[in-house]
Amino acid sequence: MTAATSEFKNIKLHYFSVVKGSTTMGRGEFVRLLLEDAGVDFEYVKYNAAEWKEVKQQLIADKVRGPTMPYLFVDGKYYGKTLPIMRFISHKIGKYEGRNDEENQLLDEYSDAIMDWAFRWATASFNDPTEEQKQNYKDNVAANAYKLFEDILSDTEGPYLLGENISYADFVLYHMMEDDGSAISAVSQPYLSAFVQAIQSRPNMKKYLATDRK
């Protein structure tokens, strides 16, 4: 644990307790993976749908504008939206960012592309999608996304999106592949396979992934 990490305290991550029967599905896990890998101590506060409705109204009453989950409380202060939270954490602890403006721009680009993918995945997974929507997601959206990130990873000299240095965007990519069903275990592309192995072999990640992840 770095000095910056040890000074980042009193953290509470808030998200749903279960999404479609899973304790890890959805955007809260993007943030959790980052915190777990960094070795940051935090409390994970989870809500069912009815509880979130009440909590949301309280946040609005407290003048939090447009609250959504996941969100973070650090020393009692609210921080919202998935990618901004991950960038905030990365900056606070001095890890998982690019080494220069060009790399940070790439991380913005990659993470935004993954969240676009996540939105399309959700559209094809929730609220009774049609068979056409599900097939289009599988044949076009997912296939194109895997090809894109296989190509991006093939351009680097290391297993991660920026090469040898892991970034917050790598956790976003890894968990998007988790949410996409059996993608983690079934991925066959060589660079994505190496990426998955690199993530799962990181000491803190290996320890966390071996738990029940509740």
TrEMBL record:
Domain (GST C-terminal): residue spans on this chain: 100-214
Top-rank taxon: Eukaryota
GO function terms (MF aspect): glutathione transferase activity
Gene3D superfamilies for this protein: 1.20.1050.10, Glutaredoxin
GO biological process: glutathione metabolic process
Domain GST N-terminal: 15-97
PANTHER family: GLUTATHIONE S-TRANSFERASE
Name of the featured protein: Glutathione S-transferase
